[in-house]
């Protein structure tokens, strides 16, 4: 009887002698296996197998027609993966060698006894099931290796590459086909991390499971910091080769460095805050009694007292810097246009630079609003300029640049920064520059990377603290002999683009003729689309992601805002609540509500009354422009 798992297994008989075929079919069915078809030629066998799935084929090697049994079996294997058992009355070596190429499950010689038939059927079906499991396992393994985020290379016992997964292909620059048969170290260009010396073969140099960092140079010359580990690939007692794992750790090292720097600066800030608090207490006593004594003393004694008072006042300014470093000083947070801050301090910076040193700026567009303390932002720029001045002993250029940057969630930058819009400020100079060790300590107090110390030595530490207090990020890059660049990213609370406003010139058409629209939409893609449509028509745009940003922009924007275009339902305040908040500030401003909600929901919001403008989503660009135009006073409508 067949095994339980063999029920419903179907067997095809391919035999050109009709009587032999019919007899074999009956005997197979008596064993308990369905045999629903007989084929008398190779062509007929292929047709049957394509229309009906068979688990096993009994194939006569010698068939009449254009295809013999070996050719037919080869096509069945390549096209359908159908297993075959050969039947033949000829056991000559040449026939057997030819049949071996098709990898049959077995052979059976005619005439076939019942015992041989039962044994061959059961054994062949079992081997076929094992082959299917193996193919399934190999497919799962291949899929797993392809999806792994680490590079995996397999080598045989001769040290030649037999497999690379896609990640290993990206890291090495070699395709699997190109690497096949090459020695491991021809494909895996490893160099010692601390030097430029080629590394030893990790298969022999690393213990089982040991990891070590290297610099990997790809086929194209790209350098990547990687971590490598090796494992022996063994089957029973036979060593088949090795598996080499390659992990890109450049991003992790960078994040670890940032975390260490952040913790170090936090510790310094806490220490600075405690010292400043205690120092201020003592200065209060000193300055208080000095002021009282100044009314009693005359002559030289009074002059000496003035020196004491001046020294104490200078000490008080140092404690102010310590408090700024600890983020405990008093600050006035407001919504600021960073380009205006740059424009206000640039003349003072330029005038302070000695001969042979120049200052230039490139203020990008669109402009962005940020939250922060105006005085602190100016101090931040001045401190960066002082650092540049000290670093450009032989002359050079200080450059101030601004732009906006959008970091998407899928962007590689999202690993380091919160996704969203930022105002980017870059302050760079062509001074002496510094090495990697100095760069890693640049924001520490009393260390600024310049040969000459400046003032209290807290300048760059204060810059770091001001940026962090504003919710931003600062990074520094430097190269000896080429200069240093500081990049600051500050969260953007709104951007606007408009005629003349980018560079601060008056509008070509005059304010009365350039309608300004405050666009509020929390869905980024919808906001960008509406922004593009309206800007293309010549409107000046103020854009905000939510009601809070819209209120900040409306508070600082000095020109008229003609139309508020706002989504109805947003996180925090709704569109109607925002319009109500802005009404005292902008009484002449008209409102267009945009909503994807149903009629009854809008009715509950009170938006279906007379005089309320609603634009339902989705909408064509022409409808948006038409409704905005209708809300504008006649004198402000675009032609």
How would you summarize this macromolecular structure in one to three sentences?
This protein is of the alpha/beta class and 639 residues long.
Number of beta strands:
23
Terminal Cα span: 92 Å
Percentage of residues in strands: 15-25%
What is the residue-averaged pLDDT? 79
Question: What gross morphology would you assign?
Answer: elongated
Major sheet: size, sense and barrel closure?
12 strands, mixed
| Cα radius of gyration in angstroms | 40 Å
Number of helices: 20
Structural overview:
Strands 12, 13, 14, 15, 16, 17, 18, 19, 20, 21, 22 and 23 form a twelve-stranded mixed β-sheet that branches. Strands 7-6-11-10-9-8 form a six-stranded antiparallel β-sheet. It has a five-stranded parallel β-sheet with strand order 2-1-3-4-5, with helices on both faces. It is elongated. Helix 10 packs antiparallel against helix 11 and helix 12 packs parallel to helix 13. Strand 4, helix 4 and strand 5 form a beta-alpha-beta unit. The protein is an alpha/beta fold. The N terminus is likely disordered.
């Amino acid at each position: 009887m067949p095994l339980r798992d063999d029920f419903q297994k179907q067997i095809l008989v391919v035999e050109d002698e009709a009587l032999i075929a019919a007899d074999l079919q009956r005997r197979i069915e008596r064993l308990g296996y369905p045999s629903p078809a007989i084929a008398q030629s190779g062509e007929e066998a292929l047709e049957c197998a394509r229309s009906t799935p068979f688990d096993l084929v009994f194939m006569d090697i010698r068939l009449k027609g254009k295809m013999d049994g070996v050719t037919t079996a080869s096509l069945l294997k390549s096209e359908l993966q159908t297993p075959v058992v050969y039947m033949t009355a000829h056991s000559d070596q040449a026939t057997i060698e030819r049949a071996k190429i098709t990898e049959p499950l077995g052979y059976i010689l005619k005439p076939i006894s019942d015992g041989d038939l039962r044994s061959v059927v059961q054994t062949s079906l079992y081997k076929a099931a094992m082959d299917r499991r193996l193919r399934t396992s190999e497919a799962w393994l291949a899929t797993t290796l392809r999806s792994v985020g680490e590079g995996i290379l397999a080598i045989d016992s001769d040290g030649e590459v037999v497999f690379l997964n896609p990640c290993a292909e990206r890291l090495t620059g070699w395709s699997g086909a190109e690497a096949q048969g090459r020695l491991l170290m021809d494909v895996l260009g490893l160099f010692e991390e601390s030097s430029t010396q080629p590394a030893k073969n990790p298969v022999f140099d690393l213990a089982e499971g040991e990891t070590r960092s290297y610099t990997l140079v790809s086929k194209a010359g790209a350098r990547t910091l990687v971590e490598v580990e090796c494992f022996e690939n063994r089957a029973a007692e036979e060593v088949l080769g090795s598996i080499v794992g390659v992990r890109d750790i450049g991003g992790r090292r960078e994040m670890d460095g940032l975390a260490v720097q952040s913790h170090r600066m936090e510790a310094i800030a806490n220490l600075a805050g405690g010292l400043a608090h205690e120092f201020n207490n003592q200065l209060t006593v000193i300055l208080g009694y000095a002021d009282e004594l100044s009314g009693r003393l005359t002559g030289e004694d009074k002059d000496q007292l003035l020196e004491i008072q001046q020294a104490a006042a200078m000490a008080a300014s140092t404690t102010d810097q310590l408090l700024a470093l600890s983020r405990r000083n008093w600050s006035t947070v407001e919504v600021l246009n960073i380009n205006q801050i740059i424009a206000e301090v640039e003349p003072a910076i330029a005038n302070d630079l000695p001969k042979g040193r120049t200052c230039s700026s490139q203020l990008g567009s669109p402009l962005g609003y940020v939250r922060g303390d105006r005085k602190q932002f100016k101090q931040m720029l001045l401190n960066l300029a002082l650092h540049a001045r000290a670093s450009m002993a032989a002359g050079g250029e200080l450059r101030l640049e601004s732009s906006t940057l959008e970091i998407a969630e899928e962007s590689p930058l999202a690993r380091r920064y919160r996704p969203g819009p930022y105002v980017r400020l870059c302050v760079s100079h062509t001074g002496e520059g510094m090495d990697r060790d100095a760069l890693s300590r640049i924001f520490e107090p009393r260390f600024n990377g310049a040969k000459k110390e400046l003032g209290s030595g807290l300048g760059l530490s204060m810059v770091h603290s001001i940026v962090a207090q504003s919710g931003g990020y600062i990074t520094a890059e430097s190269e000896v002999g080429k200069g240093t660049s500081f990049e600051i990213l500050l969260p953007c609370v709104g951007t606007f683009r408009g005629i003349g406003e980018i560079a601060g010139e008056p509008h070509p058409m005059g304010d009365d003729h350039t309608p300004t629209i405050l666009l509020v939409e929390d869905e980024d893609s919808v906001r960008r689309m509406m922004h593009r449509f309206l800007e293309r028509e010549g409107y000046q745009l103020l854009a905000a992601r939510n009601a809070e940003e819209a209120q900040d922009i409306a508070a600082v924007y000095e020109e008229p805002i003609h139309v508020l275009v706002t989504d109805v339902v947003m996180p925090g305040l709704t569109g109607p609540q925002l319009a109500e908040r802005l009404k005292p500030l902008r009484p002449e401003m008209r409102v267009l509500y945009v909503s994807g909600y149903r009629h009854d929901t809008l009715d509950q919001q009170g938006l279906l009354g007379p005089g309320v403008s609603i634009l339902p989503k989705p909408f064509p660009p022409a409808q948006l422009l038409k409704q905005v135009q209708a809300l504008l006073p006649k004198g402000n409508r675009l032609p």
